[in-house]
Specification:
Layout: E1 13-17, E2 22-29, E3 34-41, H1 47-51, E4 59-63, E5 67-68, E6 87-89, E7 92-93, H2 106-113, E8 116-119, H3 123-133, E9 136-142, H4 147-156, H5 166-169, E10 175-177, E11 185-190, H6 197-204, E12 207-212, H7 218-223, E13 228-231, H8 245-253, E14 258-261, H9 263-271, E15 276-292, E16 297-309, E17 323-329, E18 335-340, E19 345-348, H10 363-378
Parallel strand pairs: 3-4, 4-6, 5-7, 6-8, 11-12, 11-13, 13-14, 14-19
Antiparallel strand pairs: 1-2, 1-9, 2-8, 3-9, 10-12, 15-16, 15-17, 17-18, 18-19
Helix pairs in contact: 8-9
């Protein structure tokens, strides 16, 4: 492996926020202008999983951990075939990588994927700015581009509210992830930006998972009900993605277990009458404490979302009397999990597949399997 020289002290790029705040740094990856919503992620490792998470579509992701790229990238840790972020922001991009699993370096990977990045900026100051003022639109620009023109372009970009980004990252054709060992259940996975780890964990539990496009007609889904429906994570505003409602409610009322995570959680809640809202700067990282109200335990969770479900008093979910609160965020008391009071439906706001992140919440996949086992025993 070769040791790349550090960039010169003269900046080669800048990050510009919609409020005019500017950070100068070194251009990495592709050398083109890139727009997106600027957010920050607190994971210390797992930058390749972050880069390839479809939920980050349309966003410029800031890593708060100061050194990124030290173990390179490989073809195994991808959560989708290619990076989905609009841009990547780091304090220090490692000049070398060292891992027996590495296949190439971060800079090379970003460049090949057409993703622009910026390094050598004060990510701590940027994070504090976003925490104080909220996630905002921004751009990574080569240093030679005029700042006023770039700022006008940033302010012309659409805001995240109202954007249906899930349709753009969903699979175009169905595909199957075969069960590991004996096949026990047939699961449909509604792809709104599914990460590879979720179907994998279901397959390891004996599920034959058919991943279907977000635009699959509801009639097709209801015509041949599966043993379970998994509603995936994904980017954008859940209020702009209404097509899943009929399938979620229809299968649940037919006693087919439904399990949703992240965007899927929001879609399930909205299907039963709840409302969602935009968080100031979202939840992005692998260290978010969530209280399981049923078990009276705390899970450290992996999260990536900019919207949340509106909560209420006690275990009530306003507008959705059929749902009850099961998990709550210990940072800001937002809704992190629900179950239906009478139907086989459960959903969590976070990522129990945890790629990257802690594995505290993987029991939820077993809970989903338990609902399908119960349905099978009942002869439904």
């Amino acid at each position: 492996m070769s040791l790349k020289p550090r960039p010169t002290l003269d900046p080669t790029a800048y990050l510009l926020l919609e409020d005019g705040r500017r950070f100068d740094g070194a251009l990495i990856g592709a050398g083109k202008l890139s727009h997106g919503e600027v957010v920050f992620n607190t994971c210390m490792t797992g930058y390749q999983e972050v880069l390839t998470d479809p939920s980050y579509t349309g966003q410029l992701v800031t890593m708060t951990y100061p050194l990124i790229g030290n173990y390179g990238v490989n073809s195994t840790d991808r959560e989708s075939p290619a990076p989905r972020v609009s841009g990547f922001i780091v304090r220090e991009a490692s000049r070398m990588h060292s891992s027996w699993r590495a296949e190439q370096g971060l800079d090379e990977y970003l460049a090949e994927s057409g993703v622009t990045g910026i390094a050598d900026i004060d990510t701590r100051a940027l994070t504090r700015h976003i925490r104080s003022h909220g996630a905002m639109r921004g751009a990574i620009a080569p240093i030679e581009l005029d700042e006023e023109e770039v700022l006008a372009g940033v302010r012309a970009q659409p805001r995240m509210e109202g954007l249906d980004l899930a349709s753009g990252v969903s699979t175009e054709e169905p595909y199957v992830v075969d069960a590991v060992g004996e096949e026990r259940f047939r699961v449909l996975a509604y792809d709104f930006g599914v990460k590879a780890h979720s179907p994998k964990l279901l397959a390891e539990r004996g599920c034959r998972v058919t991943v279907i496009p977000a635009g699959t007609p509801v009639e097709e889904i209801l015509a041949d009900p599966p043993d379970g429906l998994f509603v995936s994570n994904g980017p954008g505003d859940p209020a702009a993605v209404e097509r899943a409602t009929a399938a979620i409610v229809g299968l649940a009322e037919a006693n087919v277990p439904v399990f949703g995570i992240c965007l899927g959680h929001q879609l399930i809640c909205r299907a039963f009458g709840a409302t969602t809202f935009k968080l100031p700067f979202g939840h992005h990282g692998g260290n978010h404490p969530v209280k399981n109200l049923d078990r009276d335990t705390v899970e450290i969770t992996s999260q990536n979302h900019g919207f949340a479900v509106q909560g209420g008093e006690g275990d009530e979910i306003p507008g959705a009397p059929g749902l009850r609160l099961t998990h709550t965020n210990l940072y800001d008391d937002t809704v992190e999990g629900v179950e239906h009071r009478t139907l086989p439906v459960l959903a969590v706001q976070y990522h129990p597949e945890a790629a990257p992140g802690p594995h505290d919440s993987r029991y939820l996949f077993d809970s989903f399997i338990g609902l399908m086992e119960e349905r099978s025993r009942s002869g439904a």
